Every structure is written in structure tokens, then in C-alpha cells.
Give the backbone structure.
Amino acid sequence: MGIFMDDVAQICARLREERVRLGMSQQDFAEVGGVSRKTQSAYESGATAPDVAYLVLVSARGVDVQYVFSGKREGGEIAGHIELEALPGFGPTEGPTTILLPEFLVQRKIGMASIASIRWAFNPSRAMEPEIERHQLVLVDVTQSQLSDLIDGNTYAYTLWGRPDIRRVLHRRDHWSVVGFGKGAESTDVYKDDQSSLEIFGAVVGVL
């Protein structure tokens, strides 16, 4: 899902300006953002809006995303926007630990959850496709991180044996299962002896 934009033409012009400032070609810039050169061209022409995951990736290479959206360089607050912290271990290996998002967009996605408890993360695998694409940005409520409080069948960000992933968590009679999307999806069972290897970071409450 793309980000809502008030003046697409100006935003696209500033995105192109940032690319030129960094001395990068459209092809090089597209590779940084994880898109094709054709998509990068569409972003700069205003044919389509960049999504949040793309903006996080290009900001890691020096793009001033605040300037792209507002015309103001970093250092000043933007009315109606909030800064979200990354969920440790679920973001890019290099890049920002915080991102700036429109408050109305975040609130619409998270419902009754408190914004103060929300962290952003990249989905690290294809297990939840097509419901959540790999590398898609998700919003995670970190207050929902205790196994005893999990809602059976909800989607959570977790690590199992140190490996981060995002899947549904099911409570069986004598074990837990982490399961991908859809019937016949891959499932991993976690029995009591291995329960300490399953660390829940929070519930996925929104997808961008």
C-alpha cells in the first residue's frame, strides 16, 4: 500500500532531486530501494506512489525522507506525523532505526492499540504470502509478547532458535505451532522442552 500524498508532483520532484543529489542513476537507486528501474521511473514521474518499505531502504543510503514529503530538511517536526522505532532484529541490517509516518495512517491500521507500544518491522520470509509479502513493512504491538497472553491463531513477530520470522501462532494441547498463511502451510511445532527457544516480540496489528 502506498503512502497518502497531498501533492504528488512536488513529492516526486523532491525524490528525483534527492537521487541526483546523491549522484545515483535511476537503476542504482532502484536497486537500493528493492524495485525495478521502471518502478523508480514511475515514482519520479508521479505515475505511482512509493511505499513505506522502499522509503526505509532509500533513507538508509542518505535520502532525506522528511524533505521528500514536506519540503523541509531533517531537524524540524512535521505536524500530523509520528516517529516509530524499529523492532530489533526485524529491520534492515543497515539503515534507520526510526521512521516518520502520517499519524492518521498508523492509527487507522492499529485500531485501539496505543501508538506508544507500536514498532515497525520488515517481514523476513515468504511464509505469510500473499497476506503479508516478504519485506513488507508491518506494525507490531510489543505489549503482546507473553506466551501466556497470546491469542490463538493471531500473527506475531518472533524468533525461534534465534531466527526472526512472522507467522500465526497456534496453541495446541501440549505444544505451540508457528504456521504460515493458508491451508497446508508449513508448520513448526514447539514443545515444552524447546519453549525457551520461542521468543515473542509482539502481535502484528497492521500492514503497510
Summary: The chain is about 25% helix and 25% strand. The radius of gyration is 19 Å.
